[in-house]
Amino acid sequence: MSLPWTVIRQLAEIEDMAMSKKVITREEWEKKLNDVKIRKEDMNKLVMNFLVTEGYVDAAEKFRMESGTEPDTDLATITDRMAIKKAVQCGNVEDAIEKVNDLNPEILDTNPQLFFHLQQQRLIELIRNGKIEEALEFAQEELAPRGEENQSFLEELERTVALLAFDDVSNCPVSDLLDISHRSKTASEVNAAILTSQSHEKDPKFPSLLKMLIWAQNQLDEKADYPRINNLSTAELEDSSV
């Protein structure tokens, strides 16, 4: 037996009410935000964490003096870490390896993947500078033995050596290896390894907090219309779509 039309309509209205989103006005939302208390000390620690992790040693020192926030690592080690990172970014990989070993030889001894990537970057720099014979000799003596022990290393080596097969490397399938971004990738890997060796987080906390903000807003979008933060650089609240 079919349900009466009035019952069907009432059921539909109940379902619509269950599925409807709560609307939160800007005034209500700002009041909720103002009720959240964050300690200044915690904010200062976040700022110091960012400055230390990213290597802004001068800014970290000034911030320490102005805020009284002590870093969780010796600021002198930041200078060493940034010198290594800069050396890789400038293509002075051999110098970077020496600096890493001076800082802590266990970093490369216990991280074969990082050492291979540094050696791979050395090979790329030789090819970039047109030292073909030296590049071939280096690949054969230093990288080939490591490739025999690790399939992923061998694939990366073959991809790097492929640069030698093209007269115009700017248009070859592996031209990305010669891009400055590849230097930056290797430099970031070294930076992360040094931070880990110093019992420090390899990434600053700020990006994680921003990811948590985006995730929380996406979850809340399913239940309410409220002023969102769409532009993370300005953190401005944008009015609800309703």
UniProtKB/TrEMBL annotation:
Family matches, as SMART domains: CRA, CTLH, LisH
Domain of life: Eukaryota
Domain CTLH: 77-134
Pfam entry (one): CTLH
PANTHER family cross-referenced by the UniProt entry: RAN BINDING PROTEIN 9-RELATED
UniProt protein name: CTLH domain-containing protein
Organism: Nepenthes gracilis
